[in-house]
């Protein structure tokens, strides 16, 4: 697992430092946007979503799980014209597809989810220190009120959101003061924003986090639409992309460049990548069993 510090919006040109806990995760959809497709408003309560989102830009959702509208059909036809002939994996993760994947993550063979969660639990305190590093020196826009630091934890392809509980728990336990002698000054505020293509996954996610009294604001849509909508949020943002989802892209470079372009100068990126096979640590048959 790798943690990046955004440096002048450059994640790919060596301008970032990494915080290593390990590199691993799950085989999760990349949610590349459909060619010519649109994000649709879900019927669920999760549609309240993000403050300031302009839902009039999106078409009404008649039946998000069963209908393939003209834009979706065009996207699928266009995608199979290319040599790779691979439609966007976003179409696999409607409500039913997302529920099926959650079942897969609980199988004994599927080591990715539980191993990644264990890494986050073990290293949560160190990660949170990196997230809030030098927070008191951020620009004034990071502060909701004088000396109150505001940050956002944005998870792309969040699903049920279980993995980021350790980070949010750790953030609640850190001292509230940001280099201040007064406990009333320098309070930290963190909003969790899960982004997913499945409205049912977001409903489950929101239910769990609300039960734990978290500040959660879900976003329904593709990765690209989430980046465009959420990068304007005030304060420092941590973008989490877990589950080794980067490997689902035929070419992950365009996604990484798009992510870098939407990062602020003090943003962080948490990236989960599964290690390759190793005779001692991870035999090929172990990987084959998990991914098949």
From TrEMBL:
- Any one GO MF annotation of this record: methyltransferase activity
What InterPro entries is this protein classified in? EgtD_Methyltrsf_superfamily, MeTrfase_dom, SAM-dependent_MTases_sf
Q: Which controlled-vocabulary keywords does the entry list?
A: Methyltransferase, Transferase
Which segments constitute the Histidine-specific methyltransferase SAM-dependent domain?
85-292
| Gene Ontology biological-process entries | methylation
Question: Pfam families, alphabetically?
Answer: Methyltransf_33
Record carries keyword Methyltransferase: yes
Q: What is this protein called?
A: Histidine-specific methyltransferase SAM-dependent domain-containing protein
